[in-house]
Design brief:
This protein is mainly α. The chain has a single domain, classed as Up-down Bundle (Ferritin), CATH 1.20.1260.10. The chain contains 5 helices and no strands. Helix 1 packs antiparallel against helix 2, helix 2 packs antiparallel against helix 5 and helix 4 packs antiparallel against helix 5. This is DUF2383 domain-containing protein.
Length: 154
């Protein structure tokens, strides 16, 4: 695998890391505020899933950085800028009006991003993780659809 492909894969993983971090944060606050047990369990499940995804993605990022430069070399890794994830109060105020339909739309959006990124990367280990995440998101979406609680908004 060429260096340019590894750089592109690293950028895709960084985008997924940011997406999963924000989702995990939103679902954590939502499941803590939710009073209905069924929805609380669902939000907690979403939060756990996003946290697991985040850890796996961070491990792959570190692995790719070691593949690019086995010895920590700032010149070779200068292109990789890890984004600081600071969530502002305005973002929280806007996003904390979360209900199940919003969560369903957010998960559907992330499912589509996973499909898109799966077609853009060639790294075997990264493809395996993205494919696993995609299937787990799809099964959660099916669970949301089968419960029928999307029709009853909070």
């Amino acid at each position: 695998m060429r260096l340019s492909e590894k750089k592109k894969t690293l950028e895709l993983l960084e985008k997924l890391r940011v997406l999963n971090y924000k989702s995990a944060f939103i679902y954590e606050i939502t499941y803590q505020k939710e009073k209905r047990l069924m929805l609380r369990k669902l939000y907690q499940q979403l939060h756990q899933q996003k946290k697991e995804f985040l850890l796996e993605i961070e491990e792959k990022i570190e692995q790719l950085k070691k593949e690019i430069s086995p010895i920590p070399d700032p010149e070779k890794l200068a292109f990789y800028k890890r984004k600081k994830l600071i969530i502002s109060q305005l973002y929280l105020k806007y996003k904390m009006k979360c209900n199940l339909t919003y969560a369903h739309k957010r998960e559907l959006k992330s499912y589509k991003k996973y499909c898109k990124y799966l077609s853009q990367t060639n790294h075997g280990g990264v493809r395996a993780i993205i494919l696993d995440h995609k299937h787990r998101i799809r099964s959660l979406l099916n669970e949301m659809n089968s419960t029928g609680i999307i029709n009853y908004q909070s």
